[in-house]
Amino acid sequence: MIRRYSRFTVPKWAKITLFSALAVLIILLGCGIYVYSTAQNARTEGFEASEDFALENTDLETVDEVTRFNGEHIYHVVKGKQADGEDAIAFIKKSEKDSEQIIYTTDTADEQQVESSWQSACGADCQMDDVRLGLYDDEPAWEVTFRDEQDRLGYSYYTLDGSEQLESFALSNQYQ
Question: Could you tell me which residues come within 8 angstroms of residue 91 by beta carbon, excluding any fewer than 6 positions away?
Fold first, then answer.
């Protein structure tokens, strides 16, 4: 009997190698998704509790957004509206749920004004990374994260209305 072989027959070692590589890639993808999911959950952990706490202990009626601010302590920044429709912001320490420790303000927060003030102060050689609500000397403020002309990481703090710069500094770039 004559054995006939297909032109598309693949050697056994090639199949094993291909399936092994595919299995390793699937395992690595699964591990990557798990690590990312775990990191995201740790970052947003407690947002719902802070939202509920702010609704119970402040004049907030609705919550629009909850973010995180890392300063001297970790704060959850709860932005929302009062019953009269006025915007309000509550800063709640992540570790302490004490109604006496809430920093609450109804001052207007103007992000576009902050970006404009920062751009004119820093110049064209700076690149903005992020603008977020935060605290400066336990007072509500804007924190602008940026890279300067020497590629150093910098921080600038502005009043909530964005009209006045409170402080600006850049970290040393000694290890590059």
Answer: 69, 75, 76, 77, 78, 102, 103, 104, 135, 140
Amino acid, single-letter form, for residue 90: A
Strand 153-158 and strand 60-70: the pairing is unpaired
Averages of pLDDT over runs of 10 residues in the chain (176 residues) are 66 88 96 94 85 89 90 88 89 81 81 86 86 89 89 89 85 73
Torsion angle of the four alpha carbons 13, 15, 21, 25, in this order, in degrees rounded to the nearest 10: -170
Q: Which CATH class is domain 59-105?
A: alpha beta
CA dist 56 → 3, 59, 67, 168 (Å): 81, 8, 18, 36
* Same fold yes or no, 59-105 and 111-170: yes
pTM exceeds 0.90 for this model: no
CATH class, range 111-170: alpha beta
Q: Return left, alpha or beta for 46; rule: phi > 0 is left, psi -120 to 50 is alpha, else beta.
A: left
